[in-house]
Amino acid sequence: MDTSKNELSLQLEQGTLNVKAAAIILHEGKLLVKKRDGIFVLPRGNVQFNESAEDALERILRIQLTANATVGRCLFVHQRFCDGEDQKPCHQLTFYFLTELSRQFWDREFFDGQQAAFCLLSAEDLKDRSAFPPFVTQCLKELPETTQVVTTRTSSKSFVQRLVAAAKQSRLISTARLALVPMQKEDAPQVFQWTSDSQVVRYLRYDKYDKVEDVEKWIESKRADEHLFGIFLKDGTLVGCANASPAEEGRYELGYSLNRTFWQHGYCTEACLALIAYTAEKFGAEDFHLSHAKENVRSQRVAEKCGFRFEKNGSYTTFDGSKTFQSREYGLKVTLHKMNLENESFLKVAEGTKSVELRLNDEKRRRVHAGDLIAFTDRLTGRKAVVKVTAMHIFDSFDKLYGSMDLARCGYFGESMFHASSNDMLKYYSKEKQRDYGVVGIEFTLLATF
């Protein structure tokens, strides 16, 4: 009998509606996943008409794993709005259940026979696999106490249009995994997910929001704030917000909040580093301040990873005066240098394929030190790429530099690698200048482009 006709996968005039059930199966600290078309996915499938999500998952697992399963509590309900394969809107509702399999499945002989279709992956294995929502990998570290409702909007078409509009206003900051852009009123439902979460706002100055309408008003009140950005994944999912705003004595105050579903993935650190880079280049900021409640260990880790140094203990009070927190206060001094690049070289930096810039070690370069920032400007387009210097490799000449450094990191690749020669630098710096000043390979990591 063809049961696909009963599946809750409906083609509507506006697009597609799918209702699915998925299994989160943990074994010896790892997650059971299914191999499909070269990628890994959770065991999952469509719910059928007049069938509960739990019953659907038991049926799906009997078919996919040929094993009996005990479907436990629902950990997540994921409302996903995205583009379907036909580029029409797709509305997908997925129930994620904590699930246990019978001992028979884990019998070594039986499980080994399933290796072509299934495998166990650790948290590290899942770290950069985009097929898994971040809240799934979170389960390997900590299970949510109650059912979490997660909403993501990943309409690539509308999000790309939004990025283009933000770029035209010089309000788009890009990193390896994130896009920081101003928030809009329609973001309110996603913002409400974390601003209504008592765990997220636990150490913040404001209390949690009770209504989406109040979040809409807050976003509208911040429209003119050029220092506040929404933190988006590259697929358009809004995961948090961050700001670096002018404070007392010329300092810039760094603040942030993140949807709990997306904690422990490094997004906050990545966004804060990008915002520091942007604020230093655009506003000339040299001094940043950050504070957090002493109990907030997660914020302490963000501060330390961003390079902040502890200054003193302090305290702060919530806006309504109901709570006072003992705090730790941090400072960060930023030194920013500016250099121009030809378009071809800039694109390599922006794409992450170049991480060493070759220069004459003149007076300007001798002022650059590890830990400093450099803002590279594309001579053709005016775009910026801000990097953090990790090392200064100094040589007497480019002959010695080319013989010592990995040229792939200097921007050479493919056929150009075979023809790479220190003579390539003669069009910029003569032998005499090299002899007088020496040369340097400035090694760096990319923080942001805008």
TrEMBL record:
Pfam families in the record: Acetyltransf_3, ASCH
Domain named N-acetyltransferase: residues: 178-342
InterPro entries per the UniProt record, alphabetical: Acyl_CoA_acyltransferase, ASCH_domain, GNAT_dom, N-acetyltransferase, NUDIX_hydrolase-like_dom_sf, PUA-like_sf
Molecular function in Gene Ontology: acyltransferase activity, transferring groups other than amino-acyl groups
CDD domains from the UniProt entry: ASCH_PF0470_like (cd06555)
Superkingdom assignment: Bacteria
UniProt name for this protein: GNAT family N-acetyltransferase
